Amino acid sequence: MKIDVIGDVHGCFEELKHLFMVLGYKEKDNIFIHPDGRIPVFVGDITDRGPASIAVLQLVYTMVVKNKIAKYVPGNHCNKLYRFFLGNKVQLKHGLETTVAEFEARNGKEQTEIKKQFKILYEQAPLYLEIKEQNAVVAHAGIKEDLIGQTGKRVQTFVLYGDITGESHSDGRPIRRDWAKSYQGNKWIIYGHTPVLEPRIKNKTINIDTGCVFGNKLTAFRLPEEETVSVPSLQEFVEEKFRNLD
Known about the structure:
- By secondary structure, this protein is α/β, with parallel strands linked by helices.
- The chain has a single domain (3-241), classed as 4-Layer Sandwich (Purple Acid Phosphatase, chain A, domain 2), CATH 3.60.21.10.
- The chain has helices at residues 13-22, 53-66, 76-85, 96-104, 108-124, 153-161; strands at 3-6, 26-28, 31-33, 39-42, 71-72, 129-131, 136-138, 164-168, 174-176, 188-191, 200-202, 205-207, 217-223, 227-232.
- The strands form 4 sheets. A 5-stranded mixed beta sheet has the order 5-4-1-13-14.
- Helix 2 packs across helix 5 and helix 3 crosses helix 5.
- One of its GO terms (molecular function) is phosphatase activity.
- One of its GO terms (cellular component) is cytoplasm.
- Residues 1-196 form the Calcineurin-like phosphoesterase domain.
- This is Bis(5'-nucleosyl)-tetraphosphatase PrpE.
């Protein structure tokens, strides 16, 4: 199974379509199919902040759940949207407010369908995805080697939020340890979550969240080729959103 792991889309629908075309996919009946049978894998955070979160949500649902030609793991933004759709009290900030505004602009019938689709997508998704054919693991914020094969609250927190310390930066962002620096496994760990200007390879890990929603680019990592492919963002560039990691 050849795969194309796609970094955090965050509602950037036009860039996602562009990336599919550059990767060689063909659009048919409003979905994207590769002539060689390649499988797209979404690394989470498909919604929030960008201009077209509902369109991305519906495309991912159609490809993953309905047509079974793609795979998906959830991110922290996905988790928060799921809790919103469950009726839980969540704060409408950090991007969720943009998705909710799109959602509430739809009529009641559309809202019912959108909510149903996302809940199915989220509930059927694995916490992280082991792809044995490519000796790879896809997890939204990464995963430590000793957590692979495990589930539970500790694993969920790590794959959704990273290796958090419990402390915060002055702007409210959680302080995270750089787990990739000490990774010694032989499986590729493919993740996103933390925006970087260029795909960051450290040991056998790669961060492919190249901050499309913050004006940089949308990136895919291809296996078995071990190559990245990116398309430019159409959004305004916000320099302070990117972390400088060696």
